[in-house]
Write a structure and sequence with these properties.
The chain is mostly helical and 239 residues long. The chain has a domain of 70 residues. Helix 1 packs across helix 2. The longest helix is centred in the middle third of the chain and has 64 residues.
């Protein structure tokens, strides 16, 4: 069965050979031509008489080369894109760290200035504590004498002011602790001192009793001649 060599016939053979290279029977059947026509289309084609009818095996090789070139281009573009994304992520990380360090420096300066200002409150707080204690003693004395009128306004005002000063000191201490924690995290350092966590609470009275007991024990050790004068337990003797 002979057919005129047309572009439609060539394209039909090309599709068949693209799916199953060198399967002449299948190509002839699908394109509706004879076996010899399919064989010639694969091996020789009809160029240059028909410029578009190059050998199909050459056409398929050309398509494969184009596909490989496209794959290389896509791979290079993908690698370039990944490299650009990594570089952008690195720059973002560097810029983010620089911004955090700058912010921490600003916070540090603010805490230093605030601490300096808060330290000026300490003498005032001490005087107010003494004044409150004296005022409270006076009120207690008046309460013991019903004939004396008791005025709490001044004491309330003093206590309110004292509470405000102590609140400022407490907030400043909390802010400083939060800042130190953030700075240590940024530097990759531990945020607490290992071995000093979960310490038991101790009141000032308990601390004073323990200090007094330690001093008493030290004096007894000295009296018994267990320690040379001026030498504390755990210290090194010098000649």
């Amino acid at each position: 069965m002979k057919r005129a060599i047309t572009k439609d016939l060539y394209d039909a053979l090309l599709v068949s050979f693209r799916e199953c290279p060198e399967n002449y029977n299948r190509a002839a059947k699908q394109a509706g031509c004879c076996l010899k026509t399919a064989q010639k289309a694969w091996a020789l084609g009809w160029a240059p008489r028909l410029s578009w009818a190059v050998p199909i095996k050459v056409m398929l090789l050309h398509e494969q080369e184009q596909a490989r070139a496209l794959a290389r281009t896509l791979s290079q573009e993908k690698a370039t894109l990944a490299s650009d994304e990594r570089e952008k992520a690195r720059k973002d990380a560097v810029e983010g760290r620089a911004a955090r360090v700058k912010m921490l420096a600003m916070i540090r300066q603010g805490i230093i200035h605030s601490s300096a200002a808060a330290l000026e409150l300490l003498p005032t707080i001490r005087r107010m504590c003494i004044a409150v204690a004296r005022r409270a003693d006076g009120i207690i004395q008046k309460l013991e004498d019903p004939s004396e009128p008791v005025t709490l306004l001044t004491l309330n005002q003093m206590l309110s002011t004292l509470r405000g000063c102590l609140y400022i000191m407490s907030m400043l201490s909390s802010s400083a602790h939060t800042f130190i924690t953030a700075e240590n995290l940024e530097a990759g350092k531990p945020t607490e001192i290992l071995g000093l966590a979960n310490l038991p609470d101790m009141s000032m009275e308990e601390a004073e009793r323990k200090i007094a007991a330690a001093q008493s024990a030290l004096e007894r050790a000295k009296d018994r001649g267990l320690l040379p004068d001026g030498v504390l337990p755990g210290s090194k003797l010098t000649n």
